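User: I'm putting together notes for a lab meeting next week and I want to include a structural view of one of the chains we've been expressing. I don't have a solved structure, so I'd like a prediction I can at least talk through. The sequence is below, exactly as it appears in our construct file.
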Amino acid sequence: MNLNYRSSLQRTMIIYFLLIGFAASLVGVEFILDTQKKELRYELLEGFQKLSRNEIQFEDAFRPIRMLRNKAIVMVSVILCVVVIVLTMFIKNITEPLQHMIDVSKDIARGDLSKSINIAANNELAELGNVINDLTTNMQEMILLAEEVCASGVELVDELSASLAAGGLEPEDAGKLQATMEVHDRRVRLLQGIIHDVSLFKIGRD
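Assistant: Thanks for the context. Below is the predicted structure for the 206-residue chain, given as structure tokens.
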């Protein structure tokens, strides 16, 4: 799953709120200007005067108000359309990658270290995904190192057992065994250092 985003999360959220605020402001200003027009007042006053003289019907006298109401309905519809568009963009650009990260993180937590988070973007979500990928890579390297150490340990024990069963060690065999023990010692020390660093990090987080 590869998701494409171009702006930072903070800028994206600001743009979304600005779009909604801009649309609402335009609608509000337009409605206020319409209600403050002198033509509307004159038309209403003239309609009431004609209605009092029975020159027009009741519905005709309130025709300007009905027109204003219809325009208000159109304005509210525009705001709702903007909200729907912004909500769709929010789901596409934020909610979907978050859900993708959650799903992959659950797989990693269950032990599937082959999973990785792929969010091609330049925002905070992509940075968080890269951090999780780095953690997964480090865990894979630690496991591989532990497997190598274990394999070396098993090999070393087997060689020692075979040499002891043969009734002693020849100088050549002793040299090979010494070299194997040195390699095993370096790997063990490296693994101990990694485990020590992880332990210190955990203590610092408590």
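A couple of points you could mention at the meeting. The first strand starts at residue 3 and ends at 4. Helices lie at 9-35, 38-52, 58-61, 63-109, 124-165, 171-205.

User: Perfect, that's what I needed.
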